[in-house]
Structure formats: C-alpha cells, structure tokens
Design goal:
By secondary structure, the protein is mainly alpha-helical. The protein has helices at residues 26-29, 55-59, 64-75, 90-101, 132-146, 152-166, 235-247, 253-265, 325-331, 374-381, 383-394, 396-412, 446-454, 460-471, 501-518, 522-540, 563-566, 588-598, 603-615, 638-643, 674-681, 683-693, 698-713, and strands at 268-269, 313-314, 335-339, 345-349, 573-574, 579-580, 648-654, 657-662, 668-672. 36% of the residues lie in helices and 5% in strands. The longest helix has 19 residues, at 522-540.
Length: 718
C-alpha cells in the first residue's frame, strides 16, 4: 500500500500477497519449492475486457490516417507539465519505443514491445527507463480517444515510428496487432541481481560469458552501460558488449551501427542536475504521484534541468531532424573524456565551431556542447564498426535505407510471421527473419489422407512423437517455430538430438509420399498423422472423441529459412517426452515449466499432456521411465492412478532416476524421472493429478488431452 501516512502490519487488513501475519509468502518459507507462477501468465482473470473481445478485430476498425494525424500534431504540442525538448517530443517517443522493443532477446523470444509490458514492473521502474513514464502519460489523451481499437503496445511503437517520420525519416512501414497484457509478466528472467545496475551475469571475465538468455549487460539496462563497461570508459571493451548484446537481439554489425547512429541522430541525453534529487521509481512512489516516478520536488526537473541517464547533451547539431549529422559529428571531431553535471562519464569534442553545436533545449539562441557515450566511441574505434560508420558517412542514402529496415526489424521482430501484421502501412516485402511460410492447400481429401496414415506401417508413438516435435518449437513469446512450414525436415531441425534424427528420417520417408499423392502439405500430414495416433489411443480407451484438424499449413523451403537464427529454438529438454540433455544444470521440472509457458499452456494443460504422452509411449529414445501402464497406446489415466498409489513408495537410484517399489514386497513396479514425480510431490500439481486419477474422470482426461493436444498443434495458426 502506498499511503501518505504510516500503516503498520497489525492495522492493515491486506497481507500483500502473503499468507501469514508475518508478511512472508510461501516462497520465502520454502524457497526451493517449485514455483508455478510462470504458468499463470496465461490466466484470463486479470483481463478487464468482455469475454470474446478480439483486439485483432477491433484494431481493423481503427482510423489509421486520423490516428497518425493526431500523433504528428502531438509531436510539437509541448505540454507545460512536461515540456518537449526544442518543442518536439520526437526524441522522447523514439526512446520509449526503442526501450520497449529493445528488451527482446532471441534465446527465448521474451521481452520486446509486443505486449505493452513497459507499463508494468519491473520495466516501468528500470533505471534505463527513467522518465518514460512521462512519455506514456503524454500519450494518454490519444489512447483515451481511440480506446479499444488501439492497444498500448501498438501505440508505444507507433509513436516512435511517427516521431521519426515527423523528423524527416522515410520509414519502412508499420504493423498493428500487438495485444496488451494486464499484469506484470512473471515469466521473464531479467537477471539474478538484487540491486539495480549490479551485474553477476558473467561466468568469467570474458564478455562472451554473458548468461543466456540475457542480452543486457547489467540489471535495469536495456543494452549496455553508456558510461562504459561497469561504468568505466573503454570504447574497445564497450564494443564487445555492444556486439554481443545486439547479436542476442538478432542484429548484425551493420544493423548495430545503423541503429546506434539512428537512435542518436535525434533527441538528447539528460544529466544537467543531480540524480539524488529524484524521488522514488514509479513502483515505490507515493500514492499522490499517481503512477509517476523519479519526481523532483526540490527544483525544476524538466527542460535543461532534466535528469534521466545522467549523461548530458545531444549527439547532433539538429536533434529534431533526420540527417547524417551523427557521423559528421562523431567522425570529423576528436573527443576527450569528461563528466556531465550529474557526474556521468561521457565524451566531448576537443574543438568544435559554435555553428556545429546543438541549441539549448529551452533557448535556441544558446549553443551547447554535444556529447558522445562510450558506446558511440566504440563505433568510432572498433575496427569493424568504424568501416561501416565511414561507409554510412559517405553514403547517407544507404544509411537511411539500412536504418529504416533495422528499425522495422527491431520493432516487429517479436510479432512473428508477416501474416499476423494488420494495417494499411504493412510493407509488401517479406523478410527472412519473419520466418515466412507459403500458404498451403485446404481443399484436399482429409479423410483419404487419414485412411493412408492408418495403413502406412508407422506406429502410434512414431506418428504422435513426430507431430509433437514439429509443433513443440512454437514460442508464444515471439511467435516463432511451430508445425506450420514443416521445418522439422530442414536444417537445422532435422539434425537436432531432441528430434531423434534416425526415427524422424524414417517417419518422414513414409509421410512425404502421402503428402505428394494427396496434394496436402507435409506440414499438414505430419500433424494429421499425430491426430490419427491420438484418435487411435482415444478409441482404444473406449471413448468416441473427435480430434479436430485444421488444414492449410504450408511447407517452407531452405531459402525461406535462416538456419542460424533457428538454432536458438533447439530444445535441450522436453519434459513431455521425458528427455533432458545430461549437461543441463537447471532442474528438469523447472525446464518443463519454462517450455510449457513458452508453448502457451496452463498448469492443467501441462499436467494432462504429460500424463497422456506417457501412456502413449512417446518418451524420447523409447525409455520406460514414467510409463506407468501395461497398456501403452491407450489414452488411459494409468499414469495418474499409479503415481498416486500409496501401496508403493519412491526411492532415488540416480541423479534423475527413481524406482517405485511395492511397500510389502520391495519389488520395483515402475521407474520415473523428476518430471514424473513432480506431479505427485508438488501440492498444486498433485491436486490436478488426483483429478485425473479419479475413476469417474477417465473420459475427462481423454477430452482434456485432445483439447490440449489440438491447442499445441494449432498454436502457430490464427
């Protein structure tokens, strides 16, 4: 509770998420307990919209020309409560959009601007996001006007794009379709540090040892420390951080230089004051601040007195114009180390003519020193970066083109395939980083394909496992992967250990002729084969439950596939198939939760899928662990029945291996892994397991499994 007067724990009736009067939650009492919060991110209870509300439908009703007209007018409508630098909000809007999109990382696809998560903790209170709360509040009248037809996620990115256009850049376009979340994301690992701007994310002194999936170098930063590595200026060392960070955000060297230069072509850094004068961050601010943070109530905190990064100054002569001034300033001047009024390390030009200096943000008659960060000096001094910078300096049109494409990639990388894009400004060009997939046919005879699959000679487990492996790569985080495209038959997926290459090759050799004869895509046939296997298992269990199928998937080609970028999707574990690479240090059950969340599954869906996959015999390498049934291939509830059977007890026999022994005879009945046993040991998961173990829920298990299976198979369809 944020209040203007002290409230003691004894007087406050709210326990702030705890379950005891001492104010300690379960994870404090039992820190090693498996935390299932990661799976609650998909819970719709926090969503205030009416059931059935579709943002994708609403945004298509948006008057885009009117919205862009309003945004263009907004850029120069300076507000007294937070005035615009040089009378133009362009730099602030670009920074807001950049810091929203810039949190994306390729390792797990999380972060990015696709959910509007910048509105919530921890991002809304990151040190690197100082005063971006003001940027979003300035946009509130526009959000209020367009309402449900415009998400915050779309507005944040569009504001940055229109800002560039209003300053003279011809952008590549813009796509709507980002849907807002309504609570802080519990599923993103931003680092293990317990204080802002600390860093414990390097395994060694080598900068390449930055812990995956992290991309930023310190807690609370979007990219790198602008003052230098750990706050110590050294452009060549900073260049190492810049290169690795941008690589982990799917950018090459040319894109990195273009983005750095283009971002610093407009706007300025703010450090003409004392950071100690700023109040608490938004999440810790007093209730009277109404969600704003970093407020300075002791002196002016806007205009030339604004403090954000702590560095002070603009990079170019004309910070509200799109031009080539960044390279002119950086490359045609010598620079020396200095400190801002706030005490931050930065670089200043040794000799500069007054006409080359930018104007003061409040008084155009005053000229002030420009500045460069350590990251800018890295562009000047790093051998590879400097060559690119010189080329951009000599060819402004080329720089503009590369930046426009890189900006579009930065702000759309987490949206998935181009087919998800909405709006009149969507570019016609399709990029390889969008993982393009051609449209497949849907007019073939599905029943005829099913008939061929029933007599093709493949086992139920072979068909189900292959369909699962094809679909499980889908990530809700950035909409990559999935069964559509049948990329499981292409490099690198066909050679992944988790896909059992020998078994996969055997199955594909059978399915490919069926696809060719029927006119269906191989992607469809792979999924349909899995459905046929599931349907057989349902029938064997004694139930008549249809397994829905949605045709129309296409088959991608090698030319449509960036094999290197797909390498990050390679699974190192799959709890659903009871497999984990031996070198993993994270527990198998935690890896299972991470995978389930990325696939968009809830805890009950994860539970029924694991139990069902076990009795279908789909374990990786045909291992027997977790297959608590004598009826492999029957979609029974045997996994849950035997897991919860108190006539047996479990005993560890290895790092990730357990025996279930009969209490009376001592004989081993079943074997299991940690992933199997967690459904009996974790209180929440056991509650779900007990539901499926009940005698009257055999059919419920089958129906729930079919529903969850169908969700996974269609996750990349919309």
């Amino acid at each position: 509770m944020n209040t203007s007067h002290p409230v003691t724990a004894a007087h406050c009736p709210v326990m702030h998420g705890a379950n005891t009067l001492s104010g300690q939650n379960n994870m404090v009492w039992w820190p090693k307990a498996l935390k299932l919060d990661i799976l609650h991110q998909h819970d719709s209870k926090a969503n205030p919209m009416v059931p059935g509300f579709s943002y994708r439908d609403e945004v298509q009703k948006l008057d885009v020309p009117a919205l862009k007209k309003d945004l263009n007018a907004f850029m120069t409508d300076s507000q007294d409560w937070w005035p615009a630098d040089w009378g133009h909000y362009g730099g602030l809007m670009v920074r807001m959009a950049w810091h929203a999109a810039g949190t994306y990382r390729i390792a797990d696809g999380r972060g990015g601007a696709g959910t509007g998560n910048q509105r919530f903790a921890p991002l809304n209170s990151w040190p690197d996001n100082v005063n971006l709360d003001k940027a979003r509040r300035l946009l509130w009248p526009i959000k209020k006007k367009y309402g449900n037809r415009l998400s915050w996620a779309d507005l944040i990115v569009l504001a940055g794009t229109v800002a560039y256009e209003s300053m003279g850049l011809q952008t590549l376009g813009f796509a709507f379709g980002r849907e807002d979340i309504w609570q802080p994301e519990q599923d993103i690992d931003w680092g293990s540090e317990k204080e802002w701007l600390a860093s414990t994310r390097y395994a060694t002194e080598q900068r390449e040892s930055l812990t995956n999936p992290l991309a930023a170098v310190q807690m609370g930063l979007v990219y790198v420390n602008p003052e230098g590595v750990n706050g110590q200026p050294d452009p060549l060392k900073t260049a190492q951080d810049v290169r690795l960070t941008f690589q982990r955000m799917a950018m090459n060297d040319e894109e990195t230089v273009a983005l750095t230069a283009g971002g610093h072509t407009v706007g300025k850094a703010h450090g003409n004051g004392q950071a100690q004068s700023l109040g608490p961050v938004p999440e810790a601010a007093d209730i009277a601040e109404q969600g704003l943070g970093w407020m300075n109530h002791t002196s002016a905190s806007t205009g030339r007195h604004t403090v954000s990064s702590g560095l002070e100054g603009a990079w170019t002569t004309h910070p509200t114009q799109w031009d080539n001034g960044y390279f002119k300033m950086l490359l045609q001047h010598d620079w020396e180390l200095t400190q801002s009024p706030a005490g931050a390390w930065q670089w200043k030009a040794v000799h500069i003519a007054p006409e080359d200096m930018p104007a003061d943000v409040q008084d155009p008659g005053i000229r002030v020193q420009p500045m460069m960060t350590d990251a800018d000096m890295a562009i000047k001094m790093d051998p590879a970066y400097s060559v690119i910078a010189q080329r951009f300096h000599q060819d402004p049109a080329h720089f503009t083109k590369v930046f426009a494409r890189a900006w579009f990639k930065l702000t759309h990388r987490d949206m998935g395939p181009r087919a998800r894009y909405i709006g009149p400004d969507v570019p016609q060009e399709e990029f390889i980083w969008q993982d393009p997939v051609p449209m497949g046919r849907a007019d073939y005879d599905v029943a005829a394909v099913e008939a061929r699959l029933l007599s093709c000679g493949l086992s139920l487990s072979e068909m189900v496992s292959t369909a699962w492996d094809s679909a499980r790569t889908f990530r809700h985080s950035d909409k990559r992967g999935g069964a559509n495209g049948a990329r499981i038959r292409l490099a690198p997926q066909k050679d992944w250990v988790g896909n059992e290459p020998a078994r996969l090759a055997k199955v594909l050799a059978v399915l490919e002729p069926i696809a060719k004869i029927s006119g269906a895509s191989l992607a469809d046939v792979i999924v349909l084969a899995g459905n046929v296997g599931v349907a057989q298992a349902v029938k064997a269990a004694g139930f008549d439950i249809p397994v829905p199928f949605l045709p129309g998937r296409g088959d991608a080609t090698d030319a449509m596939t960036d094999a290197e970028s797909f390498a990050v999707l390679e699974p190192v574990h799959d709890g659903f198939r009871n497999w984990v690479k031996p070198d993993q240090t994270t527990s198998p059950e935690e890896l299972l939760l991470d995978r389930a969340q990325l696939m968009g599954l809830t805890a009950p869906e994860m539970t029924v899928l694991v139990g069902g996959m076990r009795v279908l015999g789909t374990n990786h390498g045909n291992i027997r662990q977790g297959q608590f049934t004598d009826r492999i291939g029957v979609l029974s509830n045997d996994f849950f029945v035997n897991l919860t059977d108190m006539a047996c007890q479990w005993k560890p026999v290895g790092k990730n291996s357990y025996n279930m022994d009969d209490r009376k005879t001592g004989q081993t009945q079943w074997t299991a892994t940690r992933v199997d046993l967690v459904f009996g040991s974790n209180a929440i998961l056991r509650a779900y397991a007990e539901v499926y173990a009940q005698d009257d829920n055999r059919e419920k298990l089958a129906r729930d499994f079919v529903a969850a299976w169908t969700k996974v198979m269609n996750a990349d369809r919309f």
